[in-house]
Amino acid sequence: MSLSASACIVGAYEHPTRLAPDKSVAQLHAECALGALQDAGLSLADVDGYFCAGDAPGLSPLYMADYMGLKLKWYDGTESGGCSYLAHIEHAAAAIASGHCSVALITLAGKPRSSGQATGTAFRAPPVDRPEAVWESAFKWTIGGIYGMMMQRHMYEYGTTLEQIAWVKVAASQHAQHNPNALLRKPVTVEEVMASPVISDPIRRLDCCVITDGGGALVLTRPEIARSLKRPIVKVIGCGQTMNTTQGGYLDLTRTGAQVSGAAAFAEAGITPADIDYASVYDNFTIMVIAQLEDLGFCAKGEGGRFVADGNLISGVGKLPWNTDGGGLCNNHPMNRGGITKAIEAVRQLRGEAHPAVQVKDCRLALAAGPGLVLGPGHAHATVILERE
Fold this sequence. Notes:
By secondary structure, this protein is an alpha/beta fold.
């Protein structure tokens, strides 16, 4: 089913908090929902489709739907980690196109900062009934360790340098300085990134995303409803999803699911990477940005380091304006699930509502993409392409 012109994003909201010890996760979900609905000019009573993931209380949309008093025709609790909310955009668009609902609400919220979560440096034991747990738990792998191996392999395979990789963080910080809600607003240099403490060699502290409380929400509707709201129209024109498993140990650590999800999204939208005016690409670690940019087709495999060097991701300076809110590296990374914030900033750019210092001129086509779960033990990926009407 082609999604072109079948659904529009009419509401987007990013919670301004980065630390919320006095709020429940349910409250953050609800505040995000109300913010996105207010942005759209709608109310909870208008919502007949609801989408959320494993960050929801009770791991189900049912409890949040009850909490917010929603009367639903359709719901979806697909859980695929950080890309769940990008996948939900496709699911919501498909549900709208097939007549299952007319106004779809997607929410995310979490409190990892309040709970003292580590930056991927602590072992998180998988549930004992997961099939790989008996084999992998003994090694006590960490997320930082996995992406450290990814960076090592990329550097060995393609000659990528620490200086090149550091430019990803530099670009994020150049954008974050204009975002009053960003957790880290101070611009950093390549030298500062490289001099920051080693987390998992060769990953430095400044190669890692921030950890924040907060959340966000999106509202999608049928096109005729969107046009009645007198808000800028953002159409969903292409989507792709995939799972990239360990393949029995034959896994290339330099390649991500973006190869599959990106190709599917571009094919459905009928465009190429060269047509994209702005890209939101999930940035849990700097190396993951480089690998995804390659796999999405913005540059050849192995050329990502050279592509991002010298500020090519900085809005107004480089070839591909990227994560102009500061991204997960500097702005916001709630619940280790930054996928929804990628879509929110893409919507801002298409509406012309990003900060003037980073707004892309005449932004018409935007991409939002990112992984879910962890490369290796279980990796999902989703890509969404949006168009300003």
